[in-house]
Amino acid sequence: MEWSLLTAEQLAAALRAGEVTSAELTDAAIARIERGDKAINAICVPDFDRARAAATDADRARACGEDRPLLGIPVTVKESYDIAGLPTTWGMPPHRNHVPTEDAVQVSRLKAAGAVVLGKTNVPVGLQDIQTFNEIYGTTNNPWDHRRTAGGSSGGSAAALASGFGALSIGSDLAGSLRTPAHFCGVYAHKPSLGLAASRGMVPPPGPALPVEHDLAVVGPMARTARDLTLLLDVMAGPDPLTHGVAYHLTLPPARHERLRDFRVLVLDEHPLIPTGSAVRAAVNRVVDALVDGGARVERDSPLLPDLTEAAVLYRQLLFSGSVARFPVEAYEQLQARAAGLSADDRSLDAAVLRGMLLSHRDWIEANNRRELHRHAWRQLFATYDAVVCPVTPTPAFPHDHHPDPRERRIDIDGVAYPYFDQLVWAGLATLPGLPATAVPAGRSPEGLPVGVQLIGPMFEDRTPLRLAELLEQKIGGFQAPE
To answer: How confident is the model at residue 265 (pLDDT cuts 50, 70, 90)?
Structure first.
């Protein structure tokens, strides 16, 4: 039996039935990593000795009658999470020897649920790229085409899942960092509602692991099926006990519907600031056909939709407004000089980024107030619709591009070059208001690359897009292993 590509749900059933042990699953996963990861470079910090010991402990616990949600299941963890005794570098060379002594809260939850942690997955420098490469650990390749990126910043986790290196992984998402790698590698990911899952212990080194209320960023699950996403989200969900008390229990509402024909879905495949490539448009249409065939109510336009251009500009401003906090004074002054040279009528995304980096506190409050208007508009929209289907990025995985100045990079959309970071507009659609969004596989491009879409749901109704993902998986299929 080839266990490595089975789902977590299937592995849990086999473990309960006594068909396999955790030790056997862990050895199989380690063997697969040692055999296949040289070409992919997804697992940047292996932890095989402790994984084998944890698997032995899981088998003993099961023999004593224990049965936890992830008991004995091999998983991986994004490098940016603290794991006691392993380096947490965020791909930044000055911190290559930073070794925390305490697990991140989500790592603790994985272990409490019985998971066997195989090791850590690769990230871009500072988690600040749509690709995954750094000077410490090198480049992570897309399992479908090694000349292309696996995405970022959870690229190592997505590549590991597509390659069968563990059944589950955990990552994070500020600018599509869960959704884009899932889309590029043909797996599933879920960006939870803002604040749903505690993130303490996922902090840039050498900062202390303190509880933080993030403005846009979340932590979330990655898997090879929609049901596995829900399984892992149930382990991850819940606030930080340091700020909410250990007795606090979070209950998410059930999905709005159980049958495809009961869903009301708004579909978007055009953005005013960047075109949608033909391969991604075809994937959206494939999902639309499945929805219509299943009896769902599908619409392509709605006056309830917040203004997409304003949303993209606002997102970029808020995204970059916090990025300059650690900049040296000289670098900050250079930004001020560049901003002074901007034309007053320059409304480009690059100009929004520069202005965002220099927002005063007063300006930030004003921007945040505009965001609240967008959140209100989304609440009104979700009184009429249950989910929004749209692209994750305009294209499938693109070729590696390590130009040292990201402003000089370009993304090719059907033969036309566009600024590299403009592809983030679709990721920002859910991130700006803090909405849950599930990335699902939706077929292949003409070149054979995976193509996904995202399903955006109502705030704190994460089970609704997750259920829709599950129903779509039954209609159009889901993860396929790279050939």
So the answer is: very high
Residue 177 among the catalytic residues: yes
**Can you list the domains of the chain with their CATH numbers?**
8-257 (3.90.1300.10)
Please give the full DSSP string across 29-90, using - where no structure is assigned. Answer: HHHHHHHHHHHH--EEEE-HHHHHHHHHHHHHHHHTT---TTTT-EEEEETTS--TTS---T
User: What's the mean pLDDT in 22-39?
Assistant: 98
Report how far Cα 77 is from the mean position of its chain's Cα atoms.
12
The secondary structure element, H or E, covering residue 473 is helix 463-476
Active site residue 172: no
Strand ranges, E, within 204-269: 218-223, 264-267
Is 193 one of the catalytic residues? no
Q: Which of 4, 22, 80, 153 is catalytic?
A: 153
pLDDT, tens digit, for every residue of 457-481? 999 999 999 999 999 999 999 999 9
- The catalytically annotated residue of 80, 154, 169, 177 is 177
* pLDDT value for 325: 72
Active-site entry in 4, 22, 78, 80: 78
Per residue in 321-368, pLDDT (tens digit) is: 877 776 778 888 888 888 888 998 888 878 888 888 888 899 999 999
Which 8-state DSSP code applies to residue 421? G
Predicted structure pTM score: 0.97
Are 184 and 396 a contacting pair, CB within 8 Å? Answer: yes
| Cα 408 to Cα 100: distance, rounded to the nearest angstrom | 36
Joined together, the tokens standing for residue 12 give 């849990």
